[in-house]
Structures are given as structure tokens and as C-alpha cells.
Specification:
With about 375 residues, the protein is α/β, with parallel strands linked by helices. Helix content is about 45%, strand content about 15%. The protein contains 17 helices and ten strands. The longest helix has 18 residues, at about 230-245. It binds ligand V47.
Amino acid sequence: MAVLDALDTLAPIREKVAAGERLDFEDGLALMETDDVLALGELADLARHRRGIGDEVYFVQNLYLNQTNVCRVKCKFCAFAKTQRQEGAYTHTADELVEDAVTQYATSKFTEIHCVNGENPHVDLEFYADVLRKLRSALPDVHLKFYTASEIHHMSKLEGCSHEEVLRVLQDAGLGSLPGGGAEIFADRVRDLVAPGKEHPDEWFHVHDTAHRLGIPTHCTLLYGHVETYEERVDHLLRLRDQQDRTGGFLAFIPLAFHPENTVFERRGFRFTTGADDLKMIAVSRLLLDNVPNVKAYWIMMGLPMAQVALHFGANDVQGTVVREQIFQAAGASSGTEQKVSELVRAIQEAGRIPVQRDTLYNELRRW
Ligand code: V47
């Protein structure tokens, strides 16, 4: 027993979680380094309860749209981006996108459109504002969750104006919230290796900070399973926590598991993340991000069965019905691109949790 006690490196952290105390960098590292995945799950579930988050598991009925896959940045982890002249490159007009969304709406009454794109150097801010305006007019009840911080920064460079000016134009055109992409890993070492052409993390934070101050809620992410260390994952999570302390505008955190297919990493022998690492990321995120209310287990990325397990590791959201996801499919995801509401409900109930359909801002729409 004494030997077991001595080996329980998580015991001091368990005490802190039970007492509602904030965890620090060293705690985060100990959590990342443990092989005791089940203990992590138990701790994360304790943290969820301790913070008053119930057994409700949220999902949103949403549609994924991509305006353009043309991108000036050559991120090494990305299989979605193309150059303008490459086969398969596309840039849809606002009218094409609206027609597509309206047609989809006739069959599934989604409440949100989620849109992430390449950083296309051949368009201007009006191209982005125009699509928001036209979608808002065609589908006034649908929330428009459009453009990562990287895209907003790109627009500000294209237009020669500030993040605030870009966000105000888009907000006036109908923007409701920002997705969390573009964060990748904030550590300079990793960013220089995997995304050397991308904006500095300070810009990513500046966009989110500005959005929060303008009343635009946002999401946040971390891309794991490539060349980052555990220290760099913890550092990333703590920087997000600091931002949330300042502005409180992050609705949810979504850990994104690196998919290597059709990227240079595939040729270098990189494989998909393990289920154990996926669960670890969910649990440690819940434990460290004590001020972000929702942690998503993204079924597109980990599959629905693993997302069910993740609900016992601190996650309380499975993202959405997601029609036509492209970024993870391009990089080898095999989970499909659409889930019926009934299937999400069944999966959540099977995991022993209460399914709640939400809107983007986590207002409850229906419960089972
Ligand atoms: O920034 C790109 C990631 C992000 C790969 O806010 C990859 O609710 C894994 O923003 N393997 C864009 N990840 C997607 C995004 C997003 C996704 C889901 C939910 C939300 C949300 C936002 O996708 C990029 C990058 O981190 N990504 N390529 C890849 N091969």
C-alpha cells in the first residue's frame, strides 16, 4: 500500500481538484506524463462535477461550408490547402454558397453554419463580407460562425486595416462568432517547424481579444500529435486560460488530433494519434482550462465510439451534425462527414449522459 501511495503522483493534483484550486504548469506536465489514463478520466470528471457542469452533453445542428481552399500559407500539417493553379483549387462566389446553404437547409434545419477557409491572396474583405450579408438575408435565423483568427489577420493584411476594423465590417455583415482554428501550437519552436508562414501567436490572441471586447464570442483549439512536446501543450493551454481570465469570450475548447495523410508528415512515417492520447488531451484540457465552460470531443476527428468514452474524460459536447467536413477528410479521417441527430442522441444516451441540442451560444433548444 505504501509503495502504491508513493507511486501515486497524481495524489496532490487530486487534492487540488477536490478543493477547487487552480492547477499550475507542473501539475499540467504531471498530468500529460502519466500513463494512468483511467485516473486522468476520473480526475477530469471530478473537475467537471466540481465546477457545476452537469451530465448534459451538447450538440449543435450545423452545416460546414468552405468558401475557398486557396491558401498562401504552406502549413506542413494541412492537406486541405491548394495554390490557385493546383488541381482541385476552388473559390466559390457568395451566390453559389448561398444557393448551396439554402438547398441544404430544406433537408436539415441547421442552426449554425461553420466556415473555415484557406488564406486566399486573390480576394478582398468585401468577398468575405458579401457572403455573410447574403447568408444572413437568406437564412436570418442561422448563426454564422465564420473565419478563424488567422483568416481575420489575413484580411487585415490584405485590406491594410486593423483587426478591429475587419471584425466590425464582418459583424455588421452578420458574423456571429469565430471558430477556434489557426491556434495550432503557440510555441515558436513548433510554429517555425509546422507553420512557418503563419502569423505570430500574438496576432491570434489579438484577434480573439478584440472579438471578445466587441461582444463576438469565439472558440479555441490546439493541434496535437505532431512535433510538439508535452511542455508545449501545457504552455498552450495556460496561454488560453490567461486570455479567458482577461476577456471570458471563449465558448468552448476543441483539441484537434493531427491527421497525417496527404501531408509531408505521412511520408516521414507519422501515424494517427492513439485513443489514449486523444483521451489524455480531453482530460488535461478540462483540468487546466478551469474557466472555459465547454470541452468538445470532436467525433469527426476521433470517431463516435471514442467520443462516447471522452464524455467520461471531461468532455461535455460532441460538436455537431456537420454536413460535408473537408479539412479532416483531406487528411485521412474515416469517420464520415455527417451524423444524424438521432445517432448523436443515441450515442450520448448510450454513454449514460443527457443529450441536449444547443444553439451556438449554448442555449438549450431540445433535451431528450
Ligand atoms: O487551424 C488542419 C486544423 C483547423 C489538419 O471552433 C488539422 O468549433 C488535424 O478551425 N489534422 C481548422 N487538424 C478547423 C477549425 C475547427 C475545427 C473544428 C471545430 C472548430 C470550432 C474549429 O484544423 C486548423 C488546424 O489546426 N487542421 N489540418 C490535419 N491534417
